[in-house]
Structure formats: C-alpha cells, structure tokens
Design goal:
The protein is an alpha+beta fold. It has 17 helices and 18 strands. The strands form five sheets. It has a five-stranded mixed beta sheet. The mean pLDDT is about 90.
C-alpha cells in the first residue's frame, strides 16, 4: 500500500512497507538489507578518485550497460544514505560524467530490484519491544525475504475529516500560510474494514486540546486512507500551522512521523494514503461546479445543511451544535463521495498491473507507472536507465487526421475499431529506443527513422506492450467466464487498468519531460 524509509543510526536506512494482510490486519514490514546506488558511464580516473573522498561513499563495482547505441563500461556506486545521492550526482557531473539512475526514489528502486508488486508474501519474524511500539499497525514484522503471491484486494479503513475555524485572524500561526483564528471543531467520519461507519466530533474551549485529540484519533482509528474535501489545500495546512503555533507537529504517520507536503500541493504521511476527495472528483468527473454542496448533489443527490461559513464566528456563537452537525456532515459527504466514484478500487487495479504501492498510484504521475514496468525490464536486459530530462520542442508532432461531420441522422453506418491502435503500431514495427537503426527494415513515415526487426533485436517497449496485450486478453477471457457479478467487476477493473497502462507508454515517449523521452518514436507512432 505504501513504502518509505527511515534512518537507522549511522549504518544506513530501514525500508518500511505498510499494508493489509489477506485476512484484513494492518501490517508494517521492516527491511534493512538494501542500499542506494547509481551508475556512472565510462568514468575517468579523476572522477573515481574524487568519488572515494566523498563522505558516506561505500563501494563501486564494474558493470557493462547498453547506453545510447552501444555497450559501455560503467561502474555501480553504492552509498550509505538515499538523501545524499544528489550530492554524489552533482559531484560526478562536475567532472563531466554521465550519471544513470540517480533520480529514482529509493523506495521505488527497492521495489524494482526485488520485483515486488502491490501484493507480496513476506517471510520474516514478528517484532516486539520499543522497535515495534512506534508503529500503529496490528502487526510489525522484520522482513527477511519476499515471494510472489496471487493478487488480492483488501478492504481499506478510511478516515474523513473536516474543520471549522474562526475567520478572525489572531496571528498565532507561525508560517501564516493560512490566515485565520482558532479551530472551533474537528469532525471525523470513519469507515471500518467491515463496512461500518462511525462519526466523532472534537470540541473544546482549548484549541490545543482539539488539535492533540485529532492526532490521538488518527492513531486510535489507524486508517489506511485519510480523506476530506480540499484537505490538501485547506484543512491539512491549517491544522499543520495551528499545531506549529503550540510547538507541535502534524505527526499522523503510522511510524509517528510528521506529514509533509510534496511540490506545494499533495501531502504524504508514512503508511497512510492521503486522498483528497475534491482532487479525485476533479480528476474523475471534471464537474462544472466544484463546491462540496454541488458535488454532493451531483454524485449523491443530497443537499448540505444551511450554515453561512462566511459568517462562521457568528454561527458558532449562535448555535455550536448546528455547526458541529454541519462539520460532521461535510466529513461524511467527502467519504461517501470518494467511495461513490470508486477511485480507490480503480487505483488498486492500476497498482496491481503497474506493480506500484497504492499511495504512489493515487498521488503519483503517469510516468511512474511506466517507470515501474520499464526500469525493471531495462535492468534485467542490461540497459542503462537515464535520468529524467527535459527536451525542447519547437514544433508539434504529426498527429492523426480528424474528419469533421455535419450533425444529423445518418443511415447504414459501419464502425471499425482498430484494436489497441498505438500499442499495435509499436509492436508491429518493433519500436523502441533500443531498436533505432539507420539500417532497420521497419521504415517510419518520419524521414530517416528506422527500426530493426524483432528477429534481429526485440525492443524493450514492443516486448512489454506485447505481453500487456496478451495479459489483457487473458483477463477479458476470465471476465467473460466469471460466475458472479463481483468477479466480473474485479476482472473488468483489471483489464481497464492494463488498457490505461498500455496507452500511457505512448504519452510519455511523446512528451518533452521523461527519462525515456524520444521524439522519433512519438512522431513515428502518430505518423
């Protein structure tokens, strides 16, 4: 469900894998036998001498990697801490060296190397004592090895929350990102793994007690998912700042860690998925009106209570119970909306086929799906993995012809559907950056671009898509043979996820910002 890491004394870091078992228990698995590394292409003696003088350098090993058209002598450099990789990378680039795979997140590097997916069997022993007490999960395990297991979809515990606060700015927030006054109430709605929902209202004249009670509630309920309506943009940063005013932190991670903001947009907490209902509604439905009242009417056909939030101080003074009821309703509506659009189920399917933790699927980019599949294949084929790069594009790539039609009633219409068009074109022409060759037999409509046949050298991209296409056909066959509506829905979700993944490959190759970006491939596909 989620993977992160923490520092382990002076020896390195421990990986933390969070999830749920097949029987529904929450679990933390700790793994300490993995270290960060990257590669340098044809390093100079001077660069290697400088490398060994950088603190926390551990070792280097020679390796041959295919990179930019031929096999090259490279070295794999292993260091102590993941967060120091940028320092090593910059130092090597100062010597003019080409550095590979030095921007892959450490937790993802671990997933790729161990070939782990969304579901895995963990071999190890139960941990006890202080090392285990820091975690809120039912089980804490010291992992020793991992094995493949059949996929399953556990029920997740979801906590939705909403806050109501004074609009009178008291200047108490240290960072002043969210001007305003004290928090009046924080209300929760929790959907347990058995389907039951409970609500809870935290109210006190002492704001600090409200905030600390909220932290206690998160630990007590121990949710897999935290949601709410626009919590990324308002509720979380507001609570974060109000806690800071009392010298406290927003420690809602399953390891007791503090939540952090990514790219000034999303919030992450170790072991928990923060899935803003507003953002997911916007992504899935693109509603014309995005207020909670409008979305509740659109998705659930329900109306909200009438509270004037622009005059919340007056409303609170006149009828606290009404405001609390309003706050509880907002938390409940956000939870039910997230459930109604089935985004968690869809993302679980995509996590299964992309072999990524659910947290990274919900809050990540499309390029991460492709990385998960492509980097694993490149590593096993001895192909060097470049770092993400931005390329300039002064003209648009050649696209499809779209024929405009006049509205009206037409008779005798025949619809022809090209099955998986872009993937089929890539497979048929063996398209990949590893198969580009001026002597290739597959001639692109783009002048000067050719690809060798799969008999001469099967491309990584074409091979991956071929396997995904076979996998999708197999899943669709299982869907047709399903004996229950639940089974049919499960397989339909999987085949849709495979379809999304297949078409994502074209998008990243045609983009101007990706590690495997290649305009010749993107243009050739559409042309």
């Amino acid at each position: 469900m989620a993977v992160s890491y923490i520092r382990s004394g002076n020896e390195g870091v421990n990986l933390q894998l969070f999830g749920r078992t097949r029987d529904g228990r929450s679990i933390t698995a700790i793994y300490d036998d993995f270290q960060p590394y990257f590669q340098i292409v044809e390093p100079s003696p001077e660069a290697l001498d400088a490398l060994e003088k950088i603190p926390n350098y551990l070792r280097r090993e020679p390796v041959k990697l295919w990179y930019e058209g031929k096999e090259r002598d490279c070295v794999t450099v292993t260091i102590r801490y993941p967060y120091e990789v940028p320092k090593f990378r910059t130092r090597m680039q100062q010597f003019g060296m080409t550095v590979l795979a030095a921007d892959i997140p450490f937790s993802m590097r671990f997933m790729y190397d161990r070939d782990l997916g969304g579901c895995t069997r963990i071999l190890g022993s139960t941990m006890e004592g202080d090392a285990a007490k820091r975690y809120t999960t039912d089980l804490v395990v010291k992992a020793e090895a991992f094995e493949e297991t059949e996929d399953f979809k556990p029920q997740l515990k979801i906590l939705s929350f909403d806050i109501e606060n004074s609009l009178k700015d008291d200047g108490a927030s240290r960072k002043q990102r969210m001007p305003g006054g004290r928090v009046f109430t924080i209300c929760l709605a929790v959907r347990d793994t058995d389907g039951e929902m409970v609500t809870e209202a935290i109210v006190d004249d002492d704001e600090e007690k409200i905030l600390l009670s909220f932290l206690d509630a998160v630990e007590r309920h121990d949710p897999d998912v935290i949601t709410g309506y626009n919590i990324d943009g308002y509720d979380i940063p507001y609570v974060y700042d109000r806690l800071a005013a009392y010298g406290r932190t927003l420690s809602i991670g399953r390891d007791g860690g503090e939540a952090s903001q990514v790219s000034n947009r999303f919030w992450r907490a170790h072991g928990r998925i923060i899935a803003d209902a507003w953002w997911n509604v916007k992504r899935e439905l693109r509603p014309k009106r995005e207020r909670l009242a409008d979305v509740a009417q659109l998705v659930l056909g329900e109306q909200k209570l009438d509270v004037n939030t622009a005059k919340i101080d007056e409303e609170w003074a006149a009828d606290k119970d009404k405001v609390v009821e309003y706050c509880i309703q907002d938390a409940v509506l956000a939870l039910r909306i997230l459930e109604s659009i089935s985004v968690l189920e869809k993302m679980q399917d995509l996590a299964t086929v992309s072999k990524l933790p659910l947290d990274d699927v919900i809050n990540g980019r499309t390029s991460q799906f492709i990385d998960s599949i492509f980097i694993r294949r490149a590593d096993r084929a001895g192909v060097g993995v470049p770092m993400t790069r931005r390329t300039t594009r002064d003209t648009k790539i050649e696209g499809a012809y779209v024929h405009s039609i006049q509205p009206g009633l037409y008779r005798w219409i025949v619809v022809l559907d090209f099955k998986s068009m872009y993937p089929s074109i890539i497979i048929a022409n063996n398209m990949c950056f590893t198969t580009l060759s001026p002597d290739g037999e597959h001639v692109s409509p783009i002048e000067g671009v050719r690809f060798v046949t799969k008999e001469e050298s099967k491309g990584l991209l074409a091979g991956i898509l071929e396997e995904l296409m076979v996998e999708r056909d197999s899943i669709k066959s299982k869907m047709k043979a399903a004996e229950t509506p639940q089974q049919r829905a499960y397989f339909n979700g999987l085949q849709e996820a495979v379809k999304i993944l297949m078409y994502s490959f074209y998008g990243v190759f045609a983009s101007s910002f990706y590690r495997f970006t290649n305009r010749e491939i993107g243009e050739s596909i559409t042309a």
